[in-house]
Amino acid sequence: MTDGNWRSLLREASQLRAAGRIPEAIAAYQLLLAANPELPDCWFNLAWMQRLARAFEDSLQSYQRAIDAGIDQPEAVHVNRAAIYSEFLHRPRDARAELEAALAKNAKYVQALMNLGNLHEDLGEREAAQAAYQRVLDIDPANTMALAKLATASLSATVEPQMEARLRSAIDRPDSTATQRAGLGFALSAVLDAGGRFDDAFAAAKSANAASRAAAGSKGHYDRQGHERYVDRLIATFGHPAAPADDMRAPVFICGLYRSGSTLIEQILAGHRQVTATGELDLVPAIVSSIPNYPERMAQAGPEIIAQLRQFYLRELPAISAAIVTDKRPDNFLHIGLIKAMFPAAKIIHTFRNPLDNLLSLYFLHLDTRMSYALDLADEAHWYSQYRRVMTHWKSLYPDDIFDVDYDALVKEPEPLVRELLTFLGLDWKPDILEFQRTDRAVKTASVWQVREPLYARSSGRWRNYEEHLQPLRQALSDAGIDDPQ
Predict the structure, then answer these.
(1) Which residues lie closer than 8 Å to 132 by C-beta, 6 or more apart?
(2) Vertex 364, ends 363 and 370: CA angle to 5°?
(3) Do 40 and 71 contact (CB within 8 A), yes or no?
(4) In the chain, is it the N or the C terminus that has fewer CB atoms within a 10 Å radius of its CB?
């Protein structure tokens, strides 16, 4: 191939990539690299396109070819490979090896250190996580994300004055951005809450939510009417039970509001020899986003389309031989109709807890901008009312396939509820199943530290520490017809 020909192919591949035409871009890069394989940046771009196409093994190979071809900053490629192993293939040890390879090439590569700290958190390795974040701060003392992560990985019942001062000083810096103030503010609220300074903690959380909303811009606005219409559409589209269950093997879906105990119940089940927990998968959301005019389009979906959606899910599910596989994605509660269409035999575990505790916990977290309802207590109450409405609908359709797990009852007296849950799943009782804190699997949620401890009930009734500040929330819940919890 002449120089002009391969450069023409390169321009075409780049244009297709820029236009978001992923399958065509992949084909163009493959054709180019078959003729001229010594183009490390093209291997990198091909890997990125393959990652977007969820061709993760192909992406890993292409990233490796980029390294082998001598790409500049190979440490960045190792970080990308680590992200695939961690986020999509659920292979944390391979992710760790990639991050260590990145640091072997550049010991001061901050992104690798930050990702290594996150990975240590996922694995419950607190001291190693703290060490990784401290290394970042040694390299870059002004790194606000590392400071916030170090603070939340170091919570104690006593507020350390030095850490509080560092967080407040960073928040008050004239050049701090809204995004930085939000991350630091949520970390400060966590430090103060753990130390029992509840009024100060709530003030910090309130300021952090305001900063988060400012950083999000238009995405920080929760559209109450729009969400109500969406729930209306879900209920109208999935108005009748799916076809009777067949013998097809189906995952067990764990869902509910975020911070309602889904990670805890997943961790308990993961201790059973017949269960493999796959964590917080993005497969149902990926299917939803791939369906034009969802949910109405599903009303016309025949068996062939349903089969294609099911095959996509099963193809993307990590290869597992256990009798039961769990998919814990809290917001899948919105899509139980779709789940039951794909897997008529699917069993659903629905976790819930005292709404004041649940919504307070969300208010104290730095969440994705797609969860803009959590930035305001009244918006949280509205979201909660719509969650209750759609769950009532699903339970009317599938009363025998949805098992409620009351978090507050679970932490108070776990054995009866867990025994009942195991019966629901067709599993035998395992005496040590409640020693879930010994499970060494990766946990990628805000509950990462809680599930490393034995069961405790201190989170039940936490709202009472903030009772004075939660009167607007209690009133909004009451206005929405939600009983006032005591």
Answers:
(1) 113, 114, 116, 117, 120
(2) 55
(3) yes
(4) C
Report d(CA 184, CA 152) in Å as an integer. 10
Closest CA to 387 of 475, 255, 264, 194: 255
Output the six-digit token pair for 252.
């067990």
- Domain covering 245-479 in this structure, CATH number: 3.40.50.300
What is d(CA 434, CA 269) in angstroms, rounded to the nearest whole number? 9
| Two tokens, residue 343 | 């897997």
d(Cα 270, Cα 263) in Å, to the nearest integer? 10
* Distance from C-alpha of 406 to C-alpha of 178, rounded to nearest angstrom: 37
Q: ∠ CA 133-167-374 to the nearest 5 degrees?
A: 90
pLDDT digits (tens, 9 = 90+) for 355-366: 999 999 999 999
If pLDDT is split at 50, 70 and 90, which confidence band does 4 have?
low
Tokens of 101: 């390879």
Whole-angstrom Cα Rg for the chain = 24
Measured in degrees and rounded to the nearest 5, phi and psi for residue 93 equal: -70, -40
Q: Are 75 and 102 in contact (CB under 8 A)?
A: yes
> Nearest Cα to 328, choosing from 282, 395, 370, 372?
282
**How far apart, in Å, are the Cα atoms of 226 and each of 256, 285, 394, 473?**
21, 19, 20, 21
Tens digits of residue pLDDT in 436-458: 655 554 555 555 545 445 555 66
**CB atoms < 10 A from the CB of 230, how many?**
16
Q: How many CB atoms lie within 10 A of CB 270?
A: 22
User: 301 has which bridge partners?
Assistant: none
158 DSSP assignment = S
Strand partners, 324: 275
d(CA 204, CA 164): 11
- CA 67 to chain centroid: 30
Quick check: pTM over 0.70?
A: yes
Cβ of 91: how many Cβ atoms within 10 Å? Answer: 16
Per-domain boundaries in the chain:
245-479
